[in-house]
Amino acid sequence: MSRNDANRAAAAWSRRDILRVGSLSFFGLDLSRYLRLQHLMADTGSAPRGKAQAAILLWLNGGPSHVDTWDPKRNSSFKPIATNVPGIRISELLPRVARHMDKLSLIRSMHTLENNHGIAHHYAMTGHRPNPAMKFPSLGSIISKELGARLSVPPYVMVPDGNWFGEHFRAHMLGASYDPMEIPDPSAKNFKIPDLRLPDSISVERLQQRRAMAGLVDALYREQMHSAEHASLDVFQQQALEMILSPAVREAFDLSKETEQLKDAYGRNTVGQSALIARRLVEAGSRFVTVVDRNRPESGDWDSHANNDKRHRDVLVPVLDQVLSTLLADLEQRGLLSSTIVIAMGEFGRTPDINPNGGRDHWPQCWSLALGGGGIRGGTIVGESDERGAYVKDRMVTIGDLFATLYKALGIDWHREYMHPIGRPLKIANSLDDKTGQPIQELV
Amino acid sequence: MRVVLLLLTAMLGSRVCFAEQPAPPRPASFAREIVSILTKQGCNSSSCHGGVKGRGGLKLSLDGLDPREDYKWIVQGGTYQVLSPEALPPITPRVSLQEPENSLLLRKPAMQVVHGGGEIFTPESPDYAAILEWVRGGAAYGEDVQKTLQGIEPSSREIVLGPGHTHSLRVVARFAGGRREDVTREVRYESLDSTVATVEPSGVLKALQKGETAVILRWLGQFAHVRIGVTDQEPASDAELPRNNFIDDHVFARLRRFRIRPSELSSDHEFVRRVCLDLAGTLPPPDRVREFLASKDPKKREKVVEALLNSPEYVEFWSLRFADLFRVRGEYGWILPFWEWVRRNVATDKPYHQVAREAIAVQGYGGASHKYQFGINKPPPIEQMVNETIRVFMGRRLDCAQCHNHPFDRWTQNQYWGLGAFFGRMTNTGWAFDNAVFDDPNGHEVDYVENDPTLRFRPVAHPRTKQPLAAMFMDGTALPEDRRDDPRLALANWVVSHPYFAEAAVNRIWGYFFGRGIVDPVDDFRVVNPPTHPELLAALARDFEQHGYSLKQLMRRIVNSRAYQLSSQTHELNRHDRTNYSHALPRPLEAAVLLDAISQVTGVPEVFDKNPAGKRAIQLRFPAGASFLSVFGRPARDAVPDPGGQLNLRQAMHMLAGTTFNAKLSNEAGRLHRLLQSGASDRQLVEEFYLAALSRFPTEREWAGLQKIFAERPRREAAEDLVWALITAREFAENH
Questions:
Q1: Are B46 and B62 in contact (CB under 8 A)?
Q2: Looking at the partner chain, which of B384, B402, B652 has a beta carbon nearest the beta carbon of A239?
Q3: Are A24 and A151 within 8 A, CB to CB?
Q4: How many contacts, defined by CB atoms under 8 Å, are there between A and B?
């Protein structure tokens, strides 16, 4: 039963995409023409209704300490500083972001349910607690599905690959086409997207000859067998071919097209260069790019059970400060900020108290995140935590509310439910107690 | 009183008109009359009050499986909470004995007060009258009819209709003591595909358009199904099709009744490729194909089957599949005992009930003990053990029942945690590589976990009621006192002696060979997912039991059947059939088999990390590391495998630009280089590769096209491109 459904879905999907893919040619498209095309599409109404067209998620793996970043408190070792928005103060560890506060809003009253990394990832990326009977699609997969791919650029990308909790970022019931394409660390010397470039011995002409040969060899079988899978493979092959042959797609992954200055500005490290490639991808047509900040050579991820202050001060926050401020400025300068949402968050916050190892432990009760761009109002504080940042004092915001806010900005109906193959409806913006999340009025 | 009862019986109607024997007048019982109405009207269906959380505070058991509980919610009242056994106030009864017409149980469905489910019946309807009379009579629970009810039987289990035609189903209930009653009008009917056929509450079927569906019947917690075929074909001629064994009897009889003409017997080249891939996960080499095609031996198919069943590749391939199923994970040396256990099971054709017993009840250092402790120092969560045991060995997915009664099946949360309690005594030595799992009857805990509260002994409590639970089999019988020192062995023995066990096993194996299970997915037996061929499934299970649970014998039966050997080439009249085995269904090759096939055709072996040269993908204990395998979807073995083979963009990219599909072509040690050096003609070269990849010769049309290309382009280039085209073809990547 479920396989038939999947086949039907694949067939419907294929038909749609054949039309889309078929309207493009592979050759002679450079990035600027690509972008013009893209804007043309936006103007003719084939693009979604929201202002936002895409989102970049800076995933602060392990959970940043909210009192040492977005929600400064007296139980932090760091002082609050003023920002370019009167009345908003953030930690002194974020001096550069402070100058872009008008572009960002802060939610200081996030409340989530899970206290351990794996399941907290699951909760934050799907809005659901893990369930033994089923797997849930992730935010990025849902957005990619609802908005559809633009041109032949992969709609959903995760960078760098090798995420420990990668499973929680996948599409599951939505199908492999909405899984993130995982690409290697762009700051690595030998950075290369696997299988995106033909072997040197194979010219484009040769590839076309091969495809002609393949048509000849497989024709008989294709005539005899009627299979939705064949159609969907053809679509994937067409997409793959476009990706491999289109200079625009190759360029989207090609950091050598960026100036050395800008690369420096993002920072010559995994997070910085990943954010830069995220911007290139969004510019070329991706819908959702997750930049995973998890593997700093000095400190691993944000999970600061020991030496919280030193790690936040010397290693973790400075990179975030640099990358996030550069990304916001870069997007704005290219006119992309109004159509691109930027979110910086982890799977939870950290305890208000410092533990005996000088660290802070996991804390989902109340924490903060930053988001802006894509028509989301900047310079706003949503919600309030108590004196120590321990519990929500005012205006609790759930993952469902956050998702609903993003969906609204992207023009997606946040009330939607999917039917899971096992027969259980799934809210795409699932809040506490099975309620549907509500967009944050102050922001969208 | 008596007058009222007679009136009620008359209004309910059905038994009076259709009874096999006149029903004796008796007081209306909640368990029969009221639960019937609640079921028939869909009140206790999974999308309404029978759902996990109930609706509007009223929770009913799904399909009336638990009438005692339903009675309580209706007669005592209260609001249901999923995670707590307590009812939330107000505890207001949903029936009113003082003013029966004012009962919520009537006013809600009659929409006299707001009802989320809308108007279910009017005050003039028989259902309204029946409930009203029941309340007037004191709303008693009455006779416990479910205690004596043994089952419901439709007048036919299979019905074939022309589009537009109708058929009246009749349903009889069977009670203890041999009593039978016509319950046609009380049963709830549901067509699984109402575009093919619909069914009215009276049991009248209407065929709408060509296709197949099943109608599910529900009554008082009993279930049955009727398979419906809608066709515009004339009945087939009576010419008997040749049959090889009992499988063909069942498959061909069904095809005839459903008026589907099967495809022809597969050609020799079709058969030899299919059976080699299915039994040994390996393509037949060109010489073997030639030999087979040339042989005039009338028994050559059986002989090939025997050769394959006794080949080392058979052992390798089925070890891979069972290592996927049993989730042999880890690259370390200490996974070896587990993998070796799997391999030896296959190599010796260990009776499968013995395999299951060892997997479920393992105690000590060897074999399956390792399945419980990959990379961790404690047994996995009880839920995982319950879910896997029942899914793998009984073909049921109980997962939902962990948190609440199963929303689409009969499994309750009590049954689930009763099973959980069998795993509540598990502990382990925790000695790194020598880790051993065992049941500790005295509840002693090993020293090293003394300070870790999460590793304490795990008495199993019901998550809602918090009551400690005793081990209880799925049928509700408790584990006897005197056997509680070895609970998992008791469970294992119960599992393998249950009819579900053999059915689940044969269905799983069948699925490998036919591309779909008789129940599909193969491990999702459910009331609303009935078998397409129930008699065949039963016959296969019986045969399996009679032959000592030999998987090899089961496979021998399957591949020797004519049904298995039908061609995958369809004709106009069976092209759309995907459930009746009128032709072979193409199936994608598993990642490891595909990679080996590419290596074999090109003659360039893959080299795997940490493995000696020449190792094939199907021989790997844990196929990790190779990028081809992850791109093409090898099972990660962190969960019971689901049907794979889903295509994706990365695969398409790898086909165009990846090393597997490029570097192997130009390798000088490969088949292509050798042939080019050997002075073979174009035709010889083409034929050799066709045989290697597709186990057939090119057709004249293909040869003509290829000849032209070979004439126009540099020979090496043309030949390389031919090989590329062959190994990227769907004809190559599928078994058909």
A1: yes
A2: B652
A3: yes
A4: 145
**Separation of alpha carbons B17 and B33, rounded Å:** 16
**pLDDT for residue B5:** 38
Q: How far apart are CA A178 and CA A155, in angstroms?
A: 8
- Residue whose tokens read 């619909």: B198
Which three-class secondary structure state does DSSP give residue A56? strand
Which is nearest to A93 in space by CA: A307, A273, A291, A320? Answer: A320
Q: CA-nearest residue of chain B to A177?
A: B648
- Give the dihedral sign, CA B575/B579/B581/B582: negative
| Least Cα separation, residue B62 to chain A (angstroms) | 15
Rounded mean pLDDT, B275-285: 97
Tokens of B163: 């589009």
CATH assignment, B147-232: 2.60.40.1080
DSSP letters spanning A314-380: IIIHHHHHHHHHHHHHHHHHTT-GGGEEEEEE-S-EE-SS--TTB---EE-SSEEEEEEBTTB--S-
**CA B146 to chain centroid:** 28
Q: Give contacts of B192 with chain A, Cβ < 8 Å.
A: 1
β-bridge partners, B502: none
Query: How far apart, in Å, do the first and last CA atoms of chain A sit?
Result: 40
The letter for the amino acid at A94 is L
Do B328 and B371 touch, CB atoms closer than 8 A? yes
For residue A411, pLDDT beyond 50: yes
**Domains, chain A, with CATH or none:** 48-193+268-434 (3.40.720.10)
| SS3 state of residue A401 | helix
State the SS3 of B93-118.
CCCCCCCHHHCHHHHCCCCCCCCCCC
The closest of A184, A327, A317, A331 to A265, measured between CA atoms, is A327
Q: Which residue in B387, B413, B721, B735 has the most chain A C-beta atoms within 10 A of its own C-beta, making it the best mutation to test that interface?
A: B721
Residue type for position B429: T
Amino acid sitting at position B683: R
The residues in A 254-293 lying below 8 A from B, measured between CB atoms, are none
A187-223: per-residue pLDDT in tens? Answer: 999 999 989 989 988 998 999 899 999 999 999 999 8
Q: A179 and B387 in contact by Cβ < 8 A?
A: no
Q: How many C-beta neighbours within 10 Å does residue B699 have?
A: 12
Q: Kindly determine whether residue A210 and residue B400, on different chains, have CB atoms separated by under 8 Å.
A: no
Beta bridge partners of A110: A367, A397
Round to whole Å and give the CA distance between A129 and A118.
Answer: 11
CA distances from B441 to B358, B445, B462, B484 (A): 19, 11, 21, 8
**Poorest-confidence range of A316-330, B516-530, B687-701?**
B516-530
DSSP code of B120? -
> What digits encode the pLDDT tens for the residues B375-423?
555 667 788 889 999 999 999 988 878 877 777 777 888 889 999 989 8
The pairing of beta strand A367-372 with beta strand A340-345? antiparallel
Q: Which residues of A, range 414-443, sit inside 8 Å of B by Cβ?
A: 422-424, 434
- The CA distance from A206 to the nearest CA of chain B, in Å, is 9
Say what percent of chain A tops pLDDT 70: 89
Domain locations along chain B: 2-143, 147-232, 268-313+504-586, 332-497, 588-735
Q: Do A236 and B649 touch (CB under 8 A)?
A: yes
Distances (CA, A) of A433 to A29, A400, A427, B83, B463: 50, 11, 12, 12, 18
Locate tokens 């039987």: which residue? B153
**Taking Cα atoms as reference points, which of A396, A388, A360, A325 lies closest to residue A108?**
A396
Q: Cβ contacts of residue B708 below 8 Å, gap of 6+? A: none
Q: Record the pTM.
A: 0.84
How many angstroms separate the CA atoms of B370 and B337, rounded?
8
How many other C-beta atoms are found inside a 10 Å radius of the C-beta of residue B558? 22
